[in-house]
């Protein structure tokens, strides 16, 4: 029987390096269980996780990213106290920091569906549905990753995506701009896109957002889009 339960882990504010190692540990355990199930007579269900966190200021760039989209040198990064990592997800460069909710789904898609495009669509719909709680219309743009909104007659990204999958197990995920310092996006060409801007929920609403309430909405919409049951404890 497929396991459609998703364990939610809110690990609070973290350095990117810590959360990356945390993800890798969970990811490796699921992969190991899948490998074991291939030869074992007694098979065990693999687990699914949604890890939530906020990062200390950091720029990350995917394996196919263009380093020229980082507009600061090493000394400037140090002065501004912003970390930088090249990582094993798809996508180009982006910023993570306080006020931005990071969602790292580590799912065994064999429990749901083996379709990466559908997985991405479900992630996008999760964010679009979450934004509806704030009367914000989010949408996708053909040929561009992420969820976008329209502000001042311009298209602006409000959520970025970058994933990795192996043996149908996912990691990395999405970064939803709730109320981060948007000035930090000026030090990069976000996702390599120079003709569109960045915004956040608080920037759109001109008010402070209750992050705890937002997380509850996000978890509910995530479960609904993946037709899953949420567990708060492992």
Main sheet record: 9 strands, mixed
Overall pLDDT: 93
Which CATH class is shown?
A: Alpha Beta
Task: Give the helix tally.
Answer: 5
Radius of gyration: 18 Å
Sequence stretches where pLDDT stays below 50 over 5 or more residues: none
Content-based structural category: alpha/beta
Structural domain tally: 1
Bulk shape = globular
Q: Please give the alpha-carbon distance between the first and last residues.
A: 19 Å
CATH fourth-tier homologous superfamily: Bira Bifunctional Protein, Domain 2
- What's the total number of strands? 12
Percent range of helical residues: 25-40%
CATH architecture: 2-Layer Sandwich
Into which percentage range does the β-strand content fall?
Answer: 25-35%
3D architecture notes:
The chain has a single domain (5-231), classed as Bira Bifunctional Protein, Domain 2 (BirA Bifunctional Protein, domain 2, 2-Layer Sandwich), CATH 3.30.930.10. It is built from 5 helices and 12 strands. It has helices at residues 16-39, 74-80, 116-132, 201-205, 211-225; strands at residues 5-14, 49-55, 58-61, 83-86, 93-96, 100-106, 139-141, 144-151, 154-166, 169-177, 197-198, 229-231. Strands 1, 2, 6, 7, 8, 9, 10, 11 and 12 form a 9-stranded mixed beta sheet that branches. Helix 3 (116-132) packs across helix 5. It starts with a strand and ends with a strand. The model has no long low-confidence stretch (mean pLDDT 93).
């Amino acid at each position: 029987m497929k396991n459609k339960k998703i364990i939610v882990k809110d690990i609070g504010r973290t350095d990117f390096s810590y959360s990356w190692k945390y993800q890798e540990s969970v990811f490796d355990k699921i992969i190991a269980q899948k490998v074991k199930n291939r030869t074992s007579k007694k098979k065990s269900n693999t687990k699914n996780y949604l890890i939530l966190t906020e990062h200390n200021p950091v720029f990350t760039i995917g394996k196919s990213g263009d380093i020229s989209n980082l507009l600061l040198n090493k000394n400037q990064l140090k002065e501004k106290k912003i970390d930088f990592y090249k990582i094993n997800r798809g996508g180009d460069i982006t910023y993570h920091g306080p006020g931005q909710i990071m969602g790292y789904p580590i799912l065994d898609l064999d429990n749901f569906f083996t379709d990466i495009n559908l997985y991405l669509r479900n992630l996008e719909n999760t964010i679009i549905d979450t934004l509806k709680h704030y009367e914000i219309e989010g949408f996708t743009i053909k040929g561009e990753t992420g969820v976008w909104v329209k502000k001042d007659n311009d298209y602006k990204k409000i959520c970025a995506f970058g994933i990795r999958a192996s043996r149908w197990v996912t990691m990395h995920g999405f970064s939803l701009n709730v109320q981060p310092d948007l000035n930090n996006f000026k030090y990069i060409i976000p996702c390599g896109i120079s003709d569109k801007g960045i915004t956040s929920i608080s920037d759109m609403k001109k008010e402070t957002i209750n992050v705890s309430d937002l997380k509850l909405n996000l978890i509910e919409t995530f479960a609904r889009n993946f037709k899953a049951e949420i567990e708060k404890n492992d």
